[in-house]
C-alpha cells in the first residue's frame, strides 16, 4: 500500500464520518420540529416511529447529496491542496445546510409551513425590505445562532479528523474497513424500510397520525402504493376515505357572460381602505376609537371572512371576486379584474396608496395592466413612515379630486399591523408591550399579551391615520358622494387556538381569515349584519349597487351581494396548492400541499369523525372551477 493511497482512504473515511455525524445532527433537528410547532397530541407510537425513521432518513439523503457530488469526486485528486480544499468545501456546505434546516425550523414553528419559493421570492425580490422588518436584537440572536452552528459543525469536523476509526486503515485491515462502511449502508436501508413501509401502511389505512407527521419534514415525499395494493387485492380503494382535489388545466372564462349595465347619472367616488393583517379583536373603542365611531354611522358586517390567510389571496379575492386558486391563470393572462374594467369604462380616476410595495406580490401587473400613472410603491424607511406618507398623499390628492367632476377610486393599504414595529415613543398606549416582535420567543406557552399589546399599539396608530382620512372627507363634504369600505386582507393570530400559531398563512382558523368589514355609502342607514359574508361579495356589491351592473354575481364572482343572507354552505380559502373549504359550522376541510384532506373543527382540532359528503364536495369542486373553460 502506497502512502498516497492510504491518505486517500483516510480522507474518504474522514469525510464519511463527518457526513454521518452531520446527518445525525440534522436528523435531530428535523425530529425536533415536532416539539416546536404546537400540539403534537395526535401522534401515536407508530407515527413517532415513522417520524423518527423519516427524520434521519431524510436528513441522511439531503446531507449525502453534497458528499457524493462534491466531496467524493474531489477525493481522487492526488495532491495535498486538493484534499484540503475538499475538506473545506464539505465543511462550508454542511454549515450552510445545517443553518438552513435551523432557520426552516423557526419558519415552521411560527407559520407551520417550510421555506419555499414564495419565501425566497419575498426575501430576494424588489421591495423585500418593505415586507420584512427586524430589530437589532433579532439580528444579534441570528448571529448567535450562526456562531453556535459554526462551533458545533467545527467540533464534528474535528472529531472526524481525530476519530478512532482511522486505525482501521492501519495494518491492512481492509476487511474491518468494509465492515465500517457497511454499517451506515445497512442503517440507511433499515430506516428506509421503516419509513416507507409505515407510510405505505398509513396511506392504505388512512392513518391520520402518520399522514400528519409528513408535514414536519421539509419536502419529504414518501411512497404510497394504494393502486398496487388494490390490484393485488390487499386493500379496497373504494373504502378508503379520499377526495379528488385535482386541479383542472383550462383557460379562464372570466367573466362568464358579457356584462349588462344601466347607465347612472352620478357615479360615487369609491375608497377602499385595507389593513394588512388585521386581527378583528382590535376593533374596539379603546384600540380604534375613530373606526369604532365610524362603524356606528355605517353598515357593519360582523362575520366577514377573507378569501385567504395571506396577502396574495386576500387582496386577489377583494379585487377579483375570485379565489387565488386562479392566481397563476390570471397572472399570465391579459385580463384585468372586472371591477377595474368597469371603473375604467365609467371614466374613474384610479390611484392606489400602498405602504408596502405593490410589486411583490405582483399586484401591479395583476390588477393594473396597461394603466398609466399608478403608484406601486411609497418612499419611506419604515412602515410607520410609509403609512403616514400614504395618508398624506391621499389627503393631498383629495383637493385635486374635488375640483374635477370625474369620479375617483382610491385604494389605501396600511402595513403597520403586518410589520408590528413602531418608534419607541409610540408604544405607550398599551402596556406591558414588547419593543419589537421577538419571533424567537414565540412558543405555545408564551404569554401573548405583551406581543399583542405591541400589535395593538400599531393598530392604534393606523386608526389615527384612517381618522385623518375620514376627517378630510367629511370636512370637504365628499363623504356625501363617496363609498368608503374598510376591511383587512387577512387576519393575524396570536395563538388564540393554543396550537402555537402566530401571525398568518399557517392555518384557516377564524383568527387568520376573519376580518372586520365596514361599509359607508350615501343614502344608506347604519346597521349591523351577523350573517356570514366574504371578500368575494365586495366586487358584486360595488358593481351592482354603485356601477349599474345588472348581471348576477355568479357571472363574474364567487360571491353574492353583501346583504344577501342566502349563502353558499362552504367558503373557499387559500390558493391552488393549499386550500380549504370553511363550512357553516366552521369546520375546516383542508387540501394540503401533499394532496391529503384534513378536517379540523373551529378550534383547529383534527376531527376524525367528521363525515365528508361526496356530493357536497363535488358541487363545491365544480363551483371552484366554474371560471375555467
Averaging pLDDT over every residue, what do you get? 87
Query: What's the CATH class of the largest domain, please?
Result: Alpha Beta
Note the gap between the termini: 72 Å
Shape: globular
Low-confidence stretches: 240-250
Query: Number of domains in the coordinates?
Result: 2
By secondary-structure content and strand pairing, the structural class works out as alpha/beta
Biggest sheet features: 7 strands, mixed
The CATH architecture of the largest domain can be named as: 3-Layer(aba) Sandwich
Instruction: Give the spatial strand order of the biggest sheet.
Output: 4-5-1-6-9-2-10
Would you tell me which CATH topology of the largest domain applies?
Alkaline Phosphatase, subunit A
Proportion of β residues? Answer: 5-15%
Roughly what percent helix?
A: 40-55%
The H-level CATH homologous superfamily of the largest domain, spelled out, is Alkaline Phosphatase, subunit A
Q: How would you characterize the overall build of this protein?
A:
Helices cover 45% and strands 10% of the residues. The protein is an alpha/beta fold and 629 residues long. The chain has 2 domains: 3-239, no CATH class; 269-564, Alkaline Phosphatase, subunit A, CATH 3.40.720. The chain has a 7-stranded mixed beta sheet. Strands 12-13-14-15 form a 4-stranded antiparallel beta sheet, with no helix packed on it. The chain has a two-stranded parallel ribbon with strand order 3-11. A hairpin with a 5-residue loop joins strand 13 and strand 14. It starts with a helix and ends in a 5-residue tail after the last helix. The model is unreliable at 240-250 (pLDDT under 50).
Amino acid at each position: 500500500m502506497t502512502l498516497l493511497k492510504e491518505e486517500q482512504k483516510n480522507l474518504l473515511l474522514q469525510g464519511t464520518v463527518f457526513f454521518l455525524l452531520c446527518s445525525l445532527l440534522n436528523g435531530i433537528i428535523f425530529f425536533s420540529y415536532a416539539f416546536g410547532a404546537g400540539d403534537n397530541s395526535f401522534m401515536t407510537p407508530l407515527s413517532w416511529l415513522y417520524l423518527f425513521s423519516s427524520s434521519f432518513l431524510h436528513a441522511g439523503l439531503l446531507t449525502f447529496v453534497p458528499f457524493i457530488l462534491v466531496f467524493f469526486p474531489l477525493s481522487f485528486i492526488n495532491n495535498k491542496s486538493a484534499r484540503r480544499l475538499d475538506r473545506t468545501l464539505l465543511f462550508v456546505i454542511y454549515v450552510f445546510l445545517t443553518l438552513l434546516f435551523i432557520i426552516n425550523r423557526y419558519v415552521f414553528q411560527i407559520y407551520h409551513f417550510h421555506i419555499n419559493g414564495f419565501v425566497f421570492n419575498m426575501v430576494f425580490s424588489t421591495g423585500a425590505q418593505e415586507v420584512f422588518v427586524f430589530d437589532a436584537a433579532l439580528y444579534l440572536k441570528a448571529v448567535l445562532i450562526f456562531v453556535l452552528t459554526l462551533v458545533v459543525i467545527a467540533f464534528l469536523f474535528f472529531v472526524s479528523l481525530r476519530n478512532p476509526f482511522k486505525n482501521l486503515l492501519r495494518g491492512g485491515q481492509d476487511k474491518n474497513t468494509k465492515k465500517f462502511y457497511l454499517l451506515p449502508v445497512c442503517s440507511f436501508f433499515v430506516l428506509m424500510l421503516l419509513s416507507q413501509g409505515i407510510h405505505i401502511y398509513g396511506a392504505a389505512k388512512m392513518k391520520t397520525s402518520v399522514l400528519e407527521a409528513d408535514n414536519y419534514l421539509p419536502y419529504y415525499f414518501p411512497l404510497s402504493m394504494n393502486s398496487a395494493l388494490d390490484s393485488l387485492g390487499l386493500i379496497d380503494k373504494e373504502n378508503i376515505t379520499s377526495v379528488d382535489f385535482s386541479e383542472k388545466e383550462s383557460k379562464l372564462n372570466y367573466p362568464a357572460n358579457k356584462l349588462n349595465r344601466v347607465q347612472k347619472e352620478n357615479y360615487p367616488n369609491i375608497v377602499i381602505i385595507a389593513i394588512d393583517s388585521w386581527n378583528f379583536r382590535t376593533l374596539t373603542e379603546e384600540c380604534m376609537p375613530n373606526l369604532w365611531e365610524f362603524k356606528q354611522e355605517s353598515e357593519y358586517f360582523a362575520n366577514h371572512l377573507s378569501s385567504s390567510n395571506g396577502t396574495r389571496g386576500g387582496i386577489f379575492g377583494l379585487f377579483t371576486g375570485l379565489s387565488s386558486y386562479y392566481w397563476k391563470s390570471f397572472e399570465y393572462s391579459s385580463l384585468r379584474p372586472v371591477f377595474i374594467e368597469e371603473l375604467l369604462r365609467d371614466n374613474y380616476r384610479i390611484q392606489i396608496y400602498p405602504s408596502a410595495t405593490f410589486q411583490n406580490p405582483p399586484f401591479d401587473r395583476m390588477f393594473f395592466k396597461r394603466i398609466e400613472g399608478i403608484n406601486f410603491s411609497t418612499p419611506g424607511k419604515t412602515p410607520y413612515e410609509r403609512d403616514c406618507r400614504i395618508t398624506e398623499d391621499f389627503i393631498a390628492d383629495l383637493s385635486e379630486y374635488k375640483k374635477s367632476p370625474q369620479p375617483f377610486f382610491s385604494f389605501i393599504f396600511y402595513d403597520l399591523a403586518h410589520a408590528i414595529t413602531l418608534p419607541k415613543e409610540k408604544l405607550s398606549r398599551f402596556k406591558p408591550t414588547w419593543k419589537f416582535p421577538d419571533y424567537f420567543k414565540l412558543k405555545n406557552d408564551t404569554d401573548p399579551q405583551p406581543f399583542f399589546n405591541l400589535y395593538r399599539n400599531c393598530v392604534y396608530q393606523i386608526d389615527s391615520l384612517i381618522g385623518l382620512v375620514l376627517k378630510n372627507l367629511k370636512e370637504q363634504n365628499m363623504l356625501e358622494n363617496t363609498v368608503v369600505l374598510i376591511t383587512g386582507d387577512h387576519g393575524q393570530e396570536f395563538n388564540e387556538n393554543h396550537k402555537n400559531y402566530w401571525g398568518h398563512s399557517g392555518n384557516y382558523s377564524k383568527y387568520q381569515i376573519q376580518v372586520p368589514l365596514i361599509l359607508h355609502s350615501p343614502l344608506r342607514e347604519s346597521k349591523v349584519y351577523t350573517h356570514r359574508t366574504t371578500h368575494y361579495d365586495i366586487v358584486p356589491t360595488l358593481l351592482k349597487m354603485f356601477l349599474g351592473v345588472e348581471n348576477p354575481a355568479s357571472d363574474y364572482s364567487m360571491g353574492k351581494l353583501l346583504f344577501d343572507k342566502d349563502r353558499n354552505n362552504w367558503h373557499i380559502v387559500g390558493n391552488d396548492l393549499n386550500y380549504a373549504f370553511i363550512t357553516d359550522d366552521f369546520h375546516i376541510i383542508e387540501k394540503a400541499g401533499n394532496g391529503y384532506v384534513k378536517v379540523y373543527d373551529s378550534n383547529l382540532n383534527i376531527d376524525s369523525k367528521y363525515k365528508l359528503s361526496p356530493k357536497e364536495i363535488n358541487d363545491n369542486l365544480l363551483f371552484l372551477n366554474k371560471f375555467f373553460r
